[in-house]
Amino acid sequence: MAASEGAITFLLIFLIAIANLLHDAAADNINMAFIGRRGLQDATPTKSRNSSDIQHSVRLLPRSDVVPRNATLAERLATLAQHDATRIQALNTQLNEAIVARRNNESSQFSSSAKFSVNAGPGLYMMEITIGTPAQTFAMIMDTGSQLVWMQCQPCQACVNQDRAPFVPVSSSTYATLPCSSAACQSLPGQCQSDSSCRYTYSYASQASTQGQLGTDTLTLLSTDGTSTAFPGLAFGCGYNNQGEYGGAAGLVGMGQSVLSLPSQLGQALGGKKFSYCLVSPTDTSSSKGTTLLMGETAAENASSMGFTSMLVNPAVMAALYYIDVLGFSVNNQRLNIPAGTFSIDSTGGGGMILDSGTTYTYVPNAAFVALQQAFDASVRLPRYTGHPYLPLCYATSGQPSTAIPPLTLHMQGLDLAIPLENYFIPVDNQANYCLAMIPTAGGLQIVGNILHQNYKVLYDIDNAQIGFASRAC
Question: Does the keyword Hydrolase feature in the UniProt annotation (predicted)?
């Protein structure tokens, strides 16, 4: 009998312990921040998880529709150049419109009254997110030049090609529309409906666009280690009228600095508005390779080993683009004679240099390119190759003895970045021709593209308005 009573006592203690564990686990699943029906709010969970316990390592892969797997190297690079040209032309158009709007004393802030903002649109890398209850998983385009998270929803009036069936909001028990009075709605250009639901219109520099309804639902991010974390109340666009080419993706994940971007919405829950990536080459279409996107506090691990430069603010546009303070270049450890202010944002909001994951090559003003070309020609003992259609500075190596290629350094405020050879001197065909992965521009926006910063861990620290770099083997 005593043994039986002891067993019962043990069982009761065991059941109480299990109940406590389940209670704690349930509390741990409550998110610390969300955007609710009234807009930006703070949640007050019963028990919040320490942000350092939430590890997010999301896989990014180059878009196979932009860079087909069966294409030759020359064809891949040409396709990427065409993608760049369309993106940059449209970016400059939007930037000029924003400058004119500012000059006319119209609002340049990204609000419901704004007519112009600069949003780059579909980039070059894909990620997967899961939304709704029950969960539905979608491939989305990650873009550092955009602000809004949105996906195509059913029933859509104008639909874009999508590999998987679109999101059906009425099938999710956790989906809710946002009212016009919400802070989230007021941060987007749009209009109110008779039912007071928030409708938005969002245009990209690439001439793509999305129109639809702003709502909230539970976002689940799937990490590369197989774990997942749910974030209730993510505000996103449910697009019913969509235009553009998205390569089969369900929509776009904006990684800019606005309140509706993914890093801003998840910042409090993950220990800060921060994210980092380490990009592989966009020409590498191997399904086994990819890059890693880290979010929040995890992204800033080992930040003490990184070099940092400041993010700049362009007064003419909303902070969708990541401007950096570029001072110049060195070739062969010699600082080039480039006029001061060449890379600066001018008084109207024109010019300036951005860091962009969705652009392939690096675009510099003519004056800087001429200085670079002269410096390389003075050091490289190879015949020039002049047959390339869009890269002006090339050399032929076939049948030539080995020769040294001079080192290249990018000088930014507070940081001198020594660029690896493969990030600026690239093969362009199977004939042993190599080119400088830079293109001169006659004016407008200047861009540090993804080739120049591939195989770097790049940390976007929005909280502290800085960008960090550390060399990695991605």
Answer: yes
